[in-house]
Amino acid sequence: MKPSILVARAIFPEVLERLRQHFNVDDNPDDDTFTPAQLQARLQGKDGLFATMSERVDTQLLAACPTLKAVANMAVGYNNIDVDAATSAGVMVTNTPDVLNETTADFGWALLMAAARRITESEHWLRDGQWKKWRYDMARRWASSAWAASARQSPDARPASACR
Q: 24-26 and 92-94: which strand pairing?
């Protein structure tokens, strides 16, 4: 007989299908966030919990679910799990380290660029209906001073008459 697990939140269908190849899966297709009492009730008789940051695994839950053997946390950390209590109860705990490193770096750069280019401020200005047409001084209003300075005439520039 396959071990029985609870997948506490909605996950990608292909992951759910793969889990079903190895486990009897009790899933949550409506993606409801369980109260502690609901989580405890759904975990009765289960060998494993596929958790997210929404599910608190503490001493009380572990004591109420004596058949639980593993908690697979779909998160980088363990903030929602009392790891010491799980270890004492003989429950293995896993997480997904390093899965967000590149995304976090990308987001950090995006925030830096948005702040440097005043993206949020200009987006609010646009949505407030303040932008009516292009203006010569828009670069000064929204661009960084470095960009505005680079828009000045280059020392190598030639007069228009020399371009003929």
A: unpaired
